[in-house]
């Protein structure tokens, strides 16, 4: 039998956590033959709720679930973890300045970085979900220097999946037949959902999405804004932000990272920029990546037209500003 893998979920008493932990316990992330031990962290005001989630995990009698730690102690939560899904953070409340929200999250991610650096398993893989996701991941990277930078990522897979969903609806094709959309940049409304290289599987082979859609105005306008604004549309409809889709996409992110992407398919991940596509190095920026043997690689050599270039630069500028704001909170 395989040794259990320890998976940390921070903010586990929240909405995404509630959708995410049963998926993990069912083997959605690492497969039906991989036992897991869940480490769940939240803050003291949520301790009772967190314990309630633990009770439900026990009640669900998941065969793969070999243990549950529910704690408000960051060291206990981080000890020995192989995978960390960082969902906990400080939400923006009405009337709050951007800088104040940033400052709260910088201090959370700074201290959780130190705990992971000291106590997580060697080669722990991290994905940050909590907003501002890219910049939280960057802070985590800065304060966990012994964790390889390639192990620290942020979630843009929900945006990627939203783009797949929109194309599938528009063309009336199965979502599993659409692939190779790209989310470039920030997990924010400046992100650039790009279908220039996306295809749909047909009986006669892959067909380019731009050819099938045949409506450049829609692809450059409404499609992009729908994906960018989808989070707000969900809030409007549900009076709560996306949770099941965020949880499911976080599972997709980790699964593909660990188990690999299918041949000829890429996914979007927020990763530490090496300057590919002239994106400034040193940002956590969403790129198209393929994964193999537990490592991601940025897809190289895709053509970028003038329209795309502007969009890639715009979201990079926002991330550069966020980075500066985050650093100003450190001093
Ligand atoms: P909730 O407010 O329901 O849950 C957040 C949980 O985090 C709460 O239980 C809270 O007590 C806990 N928490 C706060 N500070 C903490 C700390 N220092 N350590 C541990 N836990 C802490 O929010 P939810 O809807 O679950 O969303 C969680 C985060 O995901 C938010 O930051 C949200 O903006 C972000 N999102 C990111 C998405 C992405 O695609 N990257 C999409 C969905 C979501 O909006």
TrEMBL record:
<keyword id="KW-0816">Tricarboxylic acid cycle</keyword>
<feature type="binding site">
    <location>
        <position position="42"/>
    </location>
    <ligand>
        <name>NAD(+)</name>
    </ligand>
</feature>
<feature type="active site" description="Proton acceptor">
    <location>
        <position position="187"/>
    </location>
</feature>
<dbReference type="GO" id="GO:0006108">
    <property type="term" value="P:malate metabolic process"/>
</dbReference>
<feature type="binding site">
    <location>
        <position position="98"/>
    </location>
    <ligand>
        <name>substrate</name>
    </ligand>
</feature>
<dbReference type="InterPro" id="IPR010945">
    <property type="entry name" value="Malate_DH_type2"/>
</dbReference>
<keyword id="KW-0560">Oxidoreductase</keyword>
<feature type="domain" description="Lactate/malate dehydrogenase C-terminal">
    <location>
        <begin position="156"/>
        <end position="324"/>
    </location>
</feature>
<feature type="binding site">
    <location>
        <position position="105"/>
    </location>
    <ligand>
        <name>NAD(+)</name>
    </ligand>
</feature>
<keyword id="KW-0520">NAD</keyword>
<dbReference type="Pfam" id="PF02866">
    <property type="entry name" value="Ldh_1_C"/>
</dbReference>
<feature type="domain" description="Lactate/malate dehydrogenase N-terminal">
    <location>
        <begin position="5"/>
        <end position="152"/>
    </location>
</feature>
<dbReference type="InterPro" id="IPR001557">
    <property type="entry name" value="L-lactate/malate_DH"/>
</dbReference>
<protein>
    <recommendedName>
        <fullName>Malate dehydrogenase</fullName>
        <ecNumber>1.1.1.37</ecNumber>
    </recommendedName>
</protein>
<dbReference type="InterPro" id="IPR022383">
    <property type="entry name" value="Lactate/malate_DH_C"/>
</dbReference>
<dbReference type="GO" id="GO:0006099">
    <property type="term" value="P:tricarboxylic acid cycle"/>
</dbReference>
<dbReference type="InterPro" id="IPR011274">
    <property type="entry name" value="Malate_DH_NAD-dep_euk"/>
</dbReference>
<dbReference type="InterPro" id="IPR001236">
    <property type="entry name" value="Lactate/malate_DH_N"/>
</dbReference>
<feature type="binding site">
    <location>
        <position position="92"/>
    </location>
    <ligand>
        <name>substrate</name>
    </ligand>
</feature>
<dbReference type="InterPro" id="IPR015955">
    <property type="entry name" value="Lactate_DH/Glyco_Ohase_4_C"/>
</dbReference>
<dbReference type="Pfam" id="PF00056">
    <property type="entry name" value="Ldh_1_N"/>
</dbReference>
<dbReference type="InterPro" id="IPR001252">
    <property type="entry name" value="Malate_DH_AS"/>
</dbReference>
<comment type="similarity">
    <text>Belongs to the LDH/MDH superfamily. MDH type 2 family.</text>
</comment>
<dbReference type="GO" id="GO:0030060">
    <property type="term" value="F:L-malate dehydrogenase (NAD+) activity"/>
</dbReference>
<feature type="binding site">
    <location>
        <begin position="129"/>
        <end position="131"/>
    </location>
    <ligand>
        <name>NAD(+)</name>
    </ligand>
</feature>
<feature type="binding site">
    <location>
        <position position="131"/>
    </location>
    <ligand>
        <name>substrate</name>
    </ligand>
</feature>
<dbReference type="InterPro" id="IPR036291">
    <property type="entry name" value="NAD(P)-bd_dom_sf"/>
</dbReference>
<feature type="binding site">
    <location>
        <position position="162"/>
    </location>
    <ligand>
        <name>substrate</name>
    </ligand>
</feature>
<feature type="binding site">
    <location>
        <begin position="11"/>
        <end position="17"/>
    </location>
    <ligand>
        <name>NAD(+)</name>
    </ligand>
</feature>
């Amino acid at each position: 039998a395989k040794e259990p893998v320890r998976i940390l979920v921070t903010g586990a008493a929240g909405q995404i956590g509630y959708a995410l932990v049963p998926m993990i316990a069912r083997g959605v992330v690492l497969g039906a033959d991989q036992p897991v031990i869940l480490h769940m962290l939240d803050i003291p005001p949520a301790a009772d709720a967190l314990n309630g989630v633990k009770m439900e995990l026990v009640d669900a009698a998941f065969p793969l679930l070999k243990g549950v730690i529910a704690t408000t102690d960051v060291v206990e939560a981080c000890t020995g973890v192989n995978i960390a899904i960082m969902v906990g953070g400080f939400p923006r409340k009405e009337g709050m300045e951007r800088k104040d929200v940033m400052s709260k999250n910088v201090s959370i991610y700074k201290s959780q970085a130190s705990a992971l650096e000291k106590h997580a398993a060697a080669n722990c893989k991290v994905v940050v979900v909590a907003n501002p996701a890219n910049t939280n991941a960057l802070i985590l990277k800065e304060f966990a220097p012994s964790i390889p930078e390639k192990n620290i990522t942020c979630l843009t897979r929900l945006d990627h999946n939203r783009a797949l969903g929109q194309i599938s609806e528009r063309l009336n094709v199965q979502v599993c037949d659409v692939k190779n959309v790209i989310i470039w940049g920030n997990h924010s409304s400046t992100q650039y959902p790009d279908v220039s290289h996306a295809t749909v599987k047909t009986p006669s082979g892959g067909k380019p999405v731009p050819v099938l859609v045949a409506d450049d105005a829609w692809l450059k306008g409404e499609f992009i804004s729908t994906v960018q604004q989808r989070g707000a549309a969900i809030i409007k409809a549900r009076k709560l932000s996306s949770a099941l889709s965020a949880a499911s996409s976080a599972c997709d992110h980790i699964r593909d990272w660990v188990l690999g992407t299918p041949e000829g398919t890429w996914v979007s991940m927020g990763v530490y920029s090496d300057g590919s596509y002239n994106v400034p190095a040193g940002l956590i920026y969403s790129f198209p990546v393929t994964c193999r043997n537990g490592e991601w690689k940025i897809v190289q050599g895709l053509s970028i037209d003038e329209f795309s270039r502007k969009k890639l630069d715009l979201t990079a500028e926002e991330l550069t500003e966020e980075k500066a704001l985050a650093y100003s909170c450190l001093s």
